[in-house]
Amino acid sequence: MAVRKQVKATVTAKNPTAIIYNETFITLKKVGSNFQDGFEKAKITKIEGISPVNAPTGLTQRAKVEFEVYMDDGNIKTLVQNFLLINHPKQPFYQLLMTIAGRSDGITPDDIIGKEVAIEIRNDKSEAGIFARVVSIFSVDELEEDNNETFDMQEPNVDNSIEKYEY
User: Fold this and answer.
1) CATH assignment of the domain containing 85
2) Per DSSP, what are the bridge partners of residue 47?
3) Is residue 60 part of a domain?
4) Number of domains making up the chain
5) CA 83 – CA 133 distance, rounded (Å)
6) pLDDT of 98-149, one tens digit each?
7) Could you tell me which of 45, 51, 77 has the C-alpha nearest to residue 63?
8) Among candidates 62, 61, 79, 81, which has minimal Cα distance to 70?
9) What gap in Å lies between CA 44 and CA 61, rounded to an integer?
10) C-alpha pair distances (Å), 83 with each of 87, 111, 121, 142, 162
């Protein structure tokens, strides 16, 4: 019978950085959203399958989608959202597929990554903090049409008579 030699090793940093010192106060980061409620243009940069969850309809597959959101101030922010893979028009992932491909089957991640869409962002409060989530996805053309609407200006109802007052 052969005897196997067991090797035990650990990896440590050469110069570990102290995060908390004895004389400092410990502060916890508050969870909050970096986004305003509203509509933004976004580019899909990554998509991957994640573990399924139990939903009212049974065990449901999910996808994790990463967006680069083009903010009004010119900055780009990353928003990551997990979506249920449910074939229904009110589901954001279904809306994503229909916006990009016009169908909900036979689509690969390569068909989605790099495409631009318009998203509606809503901030939800929970006990853990405020979180931004994507509530709807539609075409960039629809977003631009909504932003380019023109309004007819009406003549204000102004009384042109002038009264003089003495002080």
Assistant:
1) 2.40.50
2) 65
3) yes
4) 1
5) 10
6) 999 999 999 999 999 999 999 999 999 888 888 999 999 999 998 877 666 5
7) 51
8) 79
9) 19
10) 12, 17, 14, 22, 63
Q: Is residue 46 part of a domain?
A: yes
Q: Pick from 133, 114, 126: which is nearest to 46 by CA?
A: 114
Does 24 fall in a domain? no
* pLDDT tens-digit map of 55-86: 888 999 999 999 999 998 889 999 999 999 99
Closest CA relative to residue 117, chosen from 131, 103, 136, 133: 136
d(CA 26, CA 5): 44
Question: Which domain, by its residues, includes 73?
Answer: 38-147
Regarding pTM above 0.90, the answer is no
Q: What is the DSSP letter of 1?
A: -
Residue with tokens 């967006």: 67
What are residue 136's DSSP bridge partners?
120
6 part of a folded domain: no
- The backbone torsions φ and ψ at residue 41, rounded to the nearest 5 degrees and listed phi first, read -85, 140
Dihedral-angle region of residue 58 (phi above 0 means left; psi in -120 to 50 means alpha; beta otherwise) = left
How big is the CA angle at 115 (ends 107 and 33), to the nearest 5 degrees? 110
Q: Is 74 exposed, middle or buried (0-12, 13-18, 19+ CB in 10 A)?
A: exposed
